[in-house]
Input
Amino acid sequence: MKFELNHIMQEITSREKVLKNIREALVIPANTTFSEPGRDIVLFKQSTGVIEIRFAEAFKNTGGKFIYCANEKEYCHNLNSVMKAYSLPEVLCMDNDLINILEKHNIPYISDDKNLENSSCSLTRCEYLIARTGTIMISAQNKKSLRIYFTPPFHFVFAYTSQVVEDISDALKNIKSKFDKMPHFITFISGPSRTADIEKTLITGMHGPKELFLFLIDDLV
Output
């Protein structure tokens, strides 16, 4: 199983390198500035390079597993491969749009969270992906995502390249304009759950998933 998973991740990494080479040759990075209202203060050094590549690198640095998918079909193929590699029989999903995709490609799932404590993995969407820190933003607008994120040891996030933004300030600005009013709860996820509070020993999966996968589907090609 370990050999099969390593083979899958090596194959995915190769795809990422191809994507990086293609996009860096074709895309001119946009100039990004950061300022506080009424004052022109540069908070960070300006970032360069393709924004989704920078997100992928930052996300992997937090301990997350990033998987690029050229389209929906490839996403389902990769999801199915990861589930088989970890012997995950089915994924808990309560998002109707995602369920439609799972059904179309015969991915086994359950949509009842009554057995949440016994679920091995869950699948949700997110609001935005922050390139600078490799962070995932979710909000109370998607209550089902919040409910099933913290318990299963494996969590899969479905997102599009159009959801990648430069920084937290961009994500907050976008989410405010996306909804009529700011959601009453917003949280930022940076990698799988981990803590060193117990005898200074790093433990994963204490307050959330032990493994966090981000499947990024390219909708900007």
DSSP finds six helices and twelve strands in the chain.
